[in-house]
From TrEMBL:
Domain of life: Archaea
Protein name: Glutamyl-tRNA reductase
MF GO annotations: glutamyl-tRNA reductase activity
Domain Glutamyl-tRNA reductase N-terminal: 11-150
Pathway assigned to this chain's UniProt record: Porphyrin-containing compound metabolism; protoporphyrin-IX biosynthesis; 5-aminolevulinate from L-glutamyl-tRNA(Glu): step 1/2
Record's keyword annotation contains RNA-binding: no
Sorted UniProt keywords: NADP, Oxidoreductase, Porphyrin biosynthesis
Function comment: Catalyzes the NADPH-dependent reduction of glutamyl-tRNA(Glu) to glutamate 1-semialdehyde (GSA).
Top enzyme class: oxidoreductase
Gene name of the record: hemA
PANTHER family: GLUTAMYL-TRNA REDUCTASE
Amino acid sequence: MDAGVVTSARVTHKGASVDDIAAASPDSQRTAVSDLLAHPDVEEAYVLSTCNRIEAYVVAADESVGRAVLAEFLAGVPEAATVYAGHDASLRHLLRVASGLESVVVGEDQIIGQVRTAYEDARGVGGIGDLLETSVTKAIHVGERARTETAINEGVVSLGSAAVSLARREAGDLAGATALVVGAGEMARLAAERLAAAGVGELIVANRTLPHAEHVVSELEVPGEAVALPAVGSVAPRADVVVAATGSPDPVVEPDDLESGGEAVVVDLGQPRDVRPAAGDLPGVAVYDLDDIESVTENTRSRRVEAAREVEAMIDAEFDRLVEQYKRARADEVIAAMYESAERTKRREVETAIARLEENGEVTDAHREVLKAMADSLVGQLLAAPTKSLREAAAEDDWATISTALQLFDPEFGADSPASTFEDSGSERPLEAVDDD
């Protein structure tokens, strides 16, 4: 277990705009983790990047170091849109994220898969060490428990389904309507399924990779058509509802694509934006983005209040276990390093003492046992007080003391020290006299 502490920074839908989140978005989670690890003070790193949140977690010697690294990482984001958290707050927040309590759609199921994927990405580039291994896997465990032991994920459970709910609220009955889904990833697929369930008469799926769009269409029980992404402009005018959810860094739906059509409700789930905002200025075209999804999910949120209380209680209990696990592991690591260092020194000194005694006469097994027992006793007595202090430091969250002690008693500490101090002391008094006193 590393002796560092976790510090995190996040830019999410709760305090940041879609554009703020876009500014924080890395090219990829793996690249972001690699960039953080390139900082010499960062021991571990984990980055979670979704359409409505960018979160970065680092392990460093102390919180101030971690915060400085994260501030640099999110330098392009307005300070007011960024939330920093120290060790305990970071751990608790990660449990809440995986459980769905921090999602736009409370309890949505996609987030736990995203947490897993981010874990695999970070581990693939060496970002996951002992400390983050424990915390992220704990978060995944809690997220699974929340969904199997409570009703937190009943009802609207994805942004895709929330987008369709918003479209139904704004456009009315979707029966017989023509719908266009731009994208073929998980979120787009879920939106397509919900649109089909709402009874649309035709569903068009546009995607950069045409076979992926064809696959989505093939699984729907409504008349459908798959087109390549460049064909959006030719099919969009037919659509009464457009849901866009791609991973494109630039808008894929332009005002010109919608200009020749009639009234349309457009829901942009992209982050960065998939729909050029100016499309909302067209007569009869209403464009909604992730910020607008909040209003749709309020009913779901209120219905899940009781389940959320259950999940909160679960998180409290699991968080306490996680913290205690960290405290025990950190104290035990430092104590083990301290005793290992002392044991190495003790063994070297006993061997040196025995060698000196053998120069002055026979050394019996009894002599050897007395020397070893005395050395063991000295080590035990000398380390009893620091052992007690280290356990108290861990219990009191005094991570600075823990970190300092680990550096002092690193397993390599003293390995290159000079030969025995006893040998250098110049003492000529034979050790047999110790037994005679």
